[in-house]
Specification:
alpha+beta, four-stranded antiparallel β-sheet, two-stranded antiparallel sheet, 36% strand
Length: 98
Amino acid sequence: MNQERIFQILVGPHVSEKAAIAADTNNQYVFKVALTAKKAEIKKSVEQLFKVKVENVRTLRVKGKAKRNKHGVSTRTTWKKAYVRLQQGQDIDFASVE
């Protein structure tokens, strides 16, 4: 898989309190990914970019909320996130990505 496709699949890390708890307790990291990304592609992308071994990947779609504004009702975009569990002893350091 080429570098361009890796960065198309992995949009960025998702930082939240729930993601921090998952990282501490389950050795899981949460990423925002492309809506068209498959689990196998996400696994390969994380392994190549961070040079770690991935145990499994879980994905879910976060549906965009309907918001009211002065023009009526608009909808935020739907996005996809992936919970990536690393093998024992593996760790991701976001500061050292090439």
